[in-house]
Each structure stands twice: as C-alpha cells, then as structure tokens.
Amino acid sequence: MTGASAAAPLLSVVMPFRDPGDLLEPALGQLDALRHGPGRSPGSGEVEIVVVDDGSTDGSPETAADWVARRDDAVLVTVASSPATPAGSTAADSCHGGVARARDAGVRAARGTYIWMVDCDDRIPPETVDLVLPLLSAQSAPVAGGDTADTPDMVCFRAQVTEPSGRVRTVDGAPRRPGRSPRLLDRDGLAAALLDGTVRGYLWTKVIRRSVLAGVLDRYPHTSSQSDFMTVLACVPDLHRTLLLPDTGYGYVQRQGSVSTTDTRQLDNTARCADLALSVLPPMVGGRLRPRILAASFRVWFHLVPCCATPVHQAWPPGRVRDVHRGLLPGIGVRGIVCTALTGHPGVAAHAVVLRCLGPAGLYPPVYRTGRALLDAVSGRVARHSPQLRNSKTESRTARRRHSSDR
C-alpha cells in the first residue's frame, strides 16, 4: 500500500481495477475531479481515493502508482495473488482475486467514515461527492415526512444505466418527481425496498458506513456475479438509517461481452443471491401477508424471469436454453405473477405470462428476440432524436413567448 495523508477523511472512494488498459487514465481523471468542489480543494482531507490493483499485467499498476505518488489523499492497494476462498465461493470465483475480493482489500485499507465503491469503466460525476458530503457530516438533514437523518448508515442515489444497445434506464434512489424530498428508511423499510426493487443491490449507487462494511467482509461469498447484492444483504442488519435521494449520482456503462455468453455461473449466482435474500429480508418486513407477497414477487422479477431471458438474450445454444427453461419455468405460477404485478412490476409480470405460455413449446426465444430488437430500435431512435426534440420544444416555447409579448 502506498500514499495516504494523516487526517482521517469523511469519505473514501474505492476503485478496483484489473488490466483496464486505456480506461485507467480517464478513470483517474474522474477521481481527480472528485477531490475538489465548492468549499473544498484537493488535499482538504474530506475525501480519500483508494485504487486497488487486482493483479494487473498490462502496466496499469505503474500508472496508478505514479498517480498516487503525486497526491497525499490517495492510496494504492495491491491484492495478493493467492487469496483464501471465503465460505460459499468457488475456485473459479476467486481466480485473479475478483472484484469482490479487490473491494474487500479497498475497504480494509480505507480510513474514511463512509465508503463509496466505483468502477473504472463507468461515469463518475464529480458533483456526487458535493451532493453526499453534507448529508454525511450534518447533524440533521430534511427528509420526507419531516423526520431527520442523523448521520445515516447508508445513502443511496440514482444511477443511469446505459446498455450496449444505447438504451438508458434509471435505477435506485427515491423516485424523481417535482419537489421530491429524500426518503428515510429504517432497517425494515430497507428490507421491503430491496424486495420490491425500489433499492437494487448495486454498490456504486450507495455510500455506506465503513464500520458496517468492515464488519461483513467475511460474511458473504466472493462470486463472479451478484457479489454487490450479497454484500448489501450482509450489511442490511446493521443499516438502521438509509437515506434515498432523488438525485442521479452515477453512470453505469454495460459493455458488450462483459459476461461469458455460455457461462451458467451467472444464473447459479442469481439463484444463490435470491435464496440468500429470501432468507434474510422477509422476516424483517412487518405484517403477515406483505412479506409473502414481496417474497413471491422477488422470486419472479429478480430470479426466474431474468434467468429465463438471459440465455436467449445472450444467444446460448438452443439445447442449453431448453435445459434452463425446463428447470425454471415450473416456478413461475399464477400467484407469483399476480404478486409481481401488485408490487410495481407489471411489465415483468407480463413477461412472466409470455414465458409461461410460450416457453414449454419452445416459442419464447423468437418472440423475445423480435420484441427486444423492436425495443432497442425504438430506444435508439428516441436517443438519437431527443436533442433535436428538446431543441424544437425550446424553440417553440420561445416563439410562443415572443408572440405573447408582441400581442
């Protein structure tokens, strides 16, 4: 480990990397922009940068080391090449350490009161730090309902997810509506929000108290996917005050081919994560009926529908797709579909109906591919024309104002 200033910072930003190539220098530039803001300057001590090399062989460790050496508020952590495998992990999961183990190393090295995990190939808006810091240091912050959030255990903001097709969607945080205030959740409210999808398992939309993260480092498996959600699930028992923000604070970029197109581990990991979530979260939700509805919905929207669609979306061989559907389709029943629709996922419920009706006959793959192609085409067309539409609307409003003033 190299670098570090003496004073303990309020926020540590942890960025792991492995063989990032040309992505590293732009990522370091984004981290540089996080180090200063209104009323802050680089080296002010409020923000610490922790970059974690997970066994890179492309020269990026030298680039990172040089960057850290010129800053007194940054550290470089190098992950050992022969990790111990946490309970529930496999040897394949621990190959090269993996992003989960690299993040753990970053948490151990971080000195901040709070930690924000970011990825080196995403968009990291500098204003996010300015948005979050006052909430972490203020004695009280206004939230919906007139309550206050005294030093929250977790702050969750929104993120824009850009898919390889160019389609953009927003996840996490409080719904963005005019006049919308941050929303404060207790532990039970957070459990319900995770089950209904209001809060997702991504770490990059969350700033979490370091003491909470440090306490769960050995309590979840280091899997090749879903490690973010498993980390959040391990933290939930200690997250008594979660602040949901309506502001967008991150840009996640999904890259083509980032996951093997025939790797069944991603489906296995999703099933393991769903099982873990359903063992941890429903008991925290109050009432008799509500936990059952949320649990049935979660199984459908988080596990069954995505795991049936993924092999088709990634063009797995037809035999592999049939095997997956044979194992999962019986779990999609009327009760689960109804609960999914009732908990804010009508689109997923409709998708589940299509799967249940067409899947056994093998008709789902062509229908899915056709529907997805149409959706991507429409999304891409809207994305291409949205600037012109906005400009046209602005010009129209300007013309109306001029006409009104002329009258």
Description of the structure:
The chain has 407 residues and is of the alpha/beta class. It folds into 2 domains: 243 residues, Alpha-Beta Complex (Spore Coat Polysaccharide Biosynthesis Protein SpsA, Chain A), CATH 3.90.550.10; 98 residues, no CATH class. The chain is built from 13 helices and 9 strands. Strands 1, 2, 3, 4, 5, 6, 7, 8 and 9 form a 9-stranded mixed sheet that branches. α9 runs antiparallel to α10. The longest helix has 43 residues. The protein is globular and about 65 Å long. The C terminus is likely disordered.
List the helices and strands and how they pair.
Blueprint: E1 11-17, H1 24-34, E2 47-53, H2 60-69, E3 74-78, H3 98-109, E4 114-117, H4 127-137, E5 154-162, E6 168-171, E7 183-185, H5 187-196, E8 206-209, H6 210-214, H7 227-235, E9 242-253, H8 265-280, H9 290-313, H10 318-328, H11 334-342, H12 346-358, H13 364-406
Parallel strand pairs: 1-2, 1-4, 2-3, 5-9
Antiparallel strand pairs: 4-8, 5-6, 5-8, 7-9
Kindly list the characteristics that best describe this protein.
alpha/beta, single chain, 14% strand, 9-stranded mixed sheet, Glycosyltransferase EpsH, transferase, 407 residues, 9 strands, 2 domains, Spore Coat Polysaccharide Biosynthesis Protein SpsA, Chain A
Low-confidence stretches: 82-96, 145-149, 387-407
β content, as a range? 5-15%
Average pLDDT across residues?
83
Alpha carbon gap, first and last residue? 70 Å
Q: Supply the helix-strand structural class.
A: alpha/beta
CATH superfamily of the largest domain: Spore Coat Polysaccharide Biosynthesis Protein SpsA, Chain A
User: Radius of gyration in whole Å, from Cα?
Assistant: 23 Å
What would the principal axes of the Cα set say about the shape? globular
> What is the number of domains?
2
Helix content: 40-55%
User: Looking at CATH, which topology of the largest domain would you report?
Assistant: Spore Coat Polysaccharide Biosynthesis Protein SpsA, Chain A
Helix tally equals: 13
Region (Disordered): 384-407
Protein name: Glycosyltransferase EpsH
Keywords: Glycosyltransferase, Transferase
Enzyme class: transferase
